[in-house]
Amino acid sequence: MRIALLLLLAFATVAASPAPRPALKQCDARLQHADRDTAPARARKLSEMPPANQIKTVYREVDGCPKPLIVRRDIGAK
What we know:
alpha+beta, two-stranded antiparallel ribbon, 4 strands, signal
C-alpha cells in the first residue's frame, strides 16, 4: 500500500512541474561588456567627437536581454 501511495505522489509531482522555458535569443554583447578593440582614451576636441546619445540608467529587459533607455539621439550633430 505504501508503494502505491509513493508511486501516486511521484507521478503527481512530475505532472505538476512547469514546462521548460524556451531558449532566449542571444543578447547584444556590447551592452554587457566594454569594447576592448577601441583606441586608448586621449584628450580630443568636441568637434572631433561623434554625436552622442543621452541614455538613462535604468534596468529594462526586452525578451530577457538588457536594453538601454535612450532619451535623445545625435546630441551635438550638425
